Amino acid sequence: MMIFNNTTSSPSTFLLTAFPGLELAHVWISIPVCCLYIIALLGNTMILFVIFVKQHLHKPMYYFLSMLSAADLCLTITTLPTVLGVLWFHAREISFKACLIQMFFVHAFSFLESSVLAIMAFDRFMAICNPLKYATVLKDMMIMVIGLFICVRQLIFIFPMLLALKTVSFQERKELSHPFCYHPDIIRDTYSNPWINSFLGLFLQLYMTGTDLMFILVSYVLIIRAVLSIVAPKKQKKALNTCVCHICAVTIFYVPMISLSFTHRLLSSTPRVICSILANVYLLLPPVVNPIIYSLKTRTIRQAMLQLLQTKGSWSRNVRGL
Asked: Where does the secretion signal sit in this chain (predicted)?
């Protein structure tokens, strides 16, 4: 590889960073981080398994919940090797191609989760505002088409961001601020003009998540208007209770994501350890909290999980009895 003034159009390696300044405590920090990963993996896998096994959960609301759990699960698996690799083995080096691949999946599954949250808002809108049309509009075929559409949408808009990175001149061994590859972090402090890539990344962020968030807000304005028109207070409360889990999921996803994006693009003087903490919150909070919220607040999910656990417990006792 030809190097001129210690720059290259495609560096051989990037250097990942977990928590800058806390390298000596990485082993201790890895304990809660590892626990959070285990909770995220088990929780989302459990929800997917329950919805797959229980026939009475084969409904639009739970199909969309399974999409959310799948996106969370894939996002967790995407960052797990590099995060624990840095914390446990100080394996900081990652090749340019591997970094691009990880960055693609991180942003793809993140944007996918945003789209799923928008679809779930539409589901709540139909269930509350148009209950008579709910079953006729959200049929199995329509749900499959929606799922395919949002997946294709991610691919179409993320590939240009990857191709644009080929034109950027990097340092030979660029040090990143996170234990995973994140687009605003990669293009920061490059030798070539990063404005084109930064603008493209910001455009995708605003278009993909901005339109989703706007759709969610409009849906809830219509939902609140419909709920306020209900005369009976108990029915109002029941209708709003069906939205609590989704509102929590939207909050814990968008607040860390917007905070991290603002920190990288507008607050360049922010300490790196703050960026690292925000990045880990952005990656781990939704996959960890979403299964807990939906398990505790959704009675059908909670009952299905308890039934499976009881069935497994009785089966184990019968096996031991034999």
From this structure: none
CA–CA dist 216, 236 (Å, integer): 20
* Residues ≥6 apart with Cβ < 8 Å to 58: 51
Residue 319: the pLDDT is 56
For residues 311 and 302, what is the distance between their CA atoms, to the nearest angstrom? Answer: 14
Cross-strand pairs, 77:
none
For residues 34 and 55, give the distance between their C-alpha atoms in angstroms, rounded to a whole number. Answer: 33
pLDDT of residue 54 exceeding 80: yes
What is the set of domains in the chain, with CATH numbers? 15-304 (1.20.1070.10)
- Candidates 197, 205, 200; CA nearest to 258 is 205
Region 99-123: mean pLDDT is 94
Single out the residue of 248, 212, 233 nearest to residue 118, CA to CA: 212
* CB within 8 Å of 48: residues ≥ 6 apart: 66, 69, 70, 73
Name 8's bridge partners: 170
Per-residue pLDDT tens digits for 163-209: 777 777 776 667 888 899 988 888 775 665 556 556 666 777 778 88
Three-state secondary-structure class, residue 22? coil
Using an 8 Å Cβ cutoff, are 157 and 209 in contact? no
> Which CB contacts under 8 angstroms, 24+ apart, belong to 212-217?
212/114, 212/115, 212/117, 212/118, 213/114, 213/118, 213/254, 215/118, 215/121, 215/122, 216/117, 216/118, 216/121, 216/250
Report the predicted TM-score, pTM, of the whole model to 2 decimal places.
Answer: 0.89
Q: For residue 178, is it left (φ>0), alpha (ψ between -120 and 50) or beta?
A: beta
